[in-house]
């Protein structure tokens, strides 16, 4: 498995534009934990866990949660969830987000009723894993074919 992913690779795996990834890094939504950009010419390096977080963020945004609310959710997750993020479920109710971890339900946003959508984070892990495999296959060098020609006299 990779030691880290470049910004371009991270954006491809997660399914967002590089520009969006750059914005999220500059506004501290997700800082690359492998290596952060330190100026012109330096490169960010994202860890596998960063990719999972980025994919969850994309899924929340795709489900209609506003970016400010996503920031709130992630502030909560980072300070309160100490287990593997893929073991939890996020329940989205309008603009409310509830975290289901084991047998506990936590209303992360504290302002909603009625479940509209459940985002199992294990599915996010599967999506990231399959995209990494696809990306690695696409970048693998093609096998060399050596032709042998026998000429019978």
Descriptive overview:
This protein is an alpha+beta fold and 153 residues long. It has a single domain, classed as Multidrug-efflux Transporter Regulator, Chain: A, Domain 2. It is 42% helix and 15% strand. β3 and β4 form a beta hairpin.
Layout of helices and strands, plus pairs?
Elements: E1 5-6, H1 7-14, H2 18-26, E2 45-46, H3 48-62, H4 67-80, E3 89-93, E4 96-101, E5 104-107, E6 117-120, H5 121-139
Antiparallel strand pairs: 1-2, 3-4, 3-6, 4-5
Helix pairs in contact: 1-2, 1-5, 3-5
CATH architecture: Orthogonal Bundle
Mean pLDDT: 74
Which range best describes the helical content: under 10%, 10-25%, 25-40%, 40-55%, 55-70% or over 70%?
40-55%
- What fraction of the residues are assigned to beta strands by DSSP? 15-25%
Query: Number of domains in the coordinates?
Result: 1
- Over all CA atoms, what is the radius of gyration? 20 Å
**Pattern of helices and strands:** EHHEHHEEEEH
CATH topology: Multidrug-efflux Transporter Regulator, Chain: A, Domain 2
What is the count of β-strands? 6
In whole angstroms, the N-to-C terminal distance is 52 Å
Q: How many helices in DSSP terms?
A: 5
Shape: globular
- SSE class: alpha+beta
The order of strands across the largest sheet is 5-4-3-6
Main sheet properties: 4 strands, antiparallel
CATH class: Mainly Alpha
Give start-end ranges of low-pLDDT stretches.
111-117
């Amino acid at each position: 498995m990779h030691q880290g992913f470049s910004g371009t690779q991270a954006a491809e795996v997660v399914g967002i534009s590089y520009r969006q990834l750059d914005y999220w890094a500059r506004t501290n939504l997700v800082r690359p934990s492998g290596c952060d950009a330190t100026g012109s010419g330096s490169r960010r390096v994202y860890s596998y866990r960063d990719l999972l977080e980025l994919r969850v963020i994309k899924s929340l945004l795709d489900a209609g949660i506003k970016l400010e609310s996503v920031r709130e959710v992630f502030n909560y997750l980072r300070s309160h969830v100490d287990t593997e993020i893929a073991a939890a479920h996020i329940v989205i109710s309008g603009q409310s987000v509830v975290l289901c971890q084991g047998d506990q339900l936590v209303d992360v946003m504290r302002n909603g009723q009625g479940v509209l959508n459940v985002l199992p984070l294990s599915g996010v892990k599967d999506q990231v894993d399959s995209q990494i495999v696809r990306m690695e296959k696409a970048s693998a060098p093609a096998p060399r074919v050596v032709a042998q020609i026998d000429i019978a006299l």
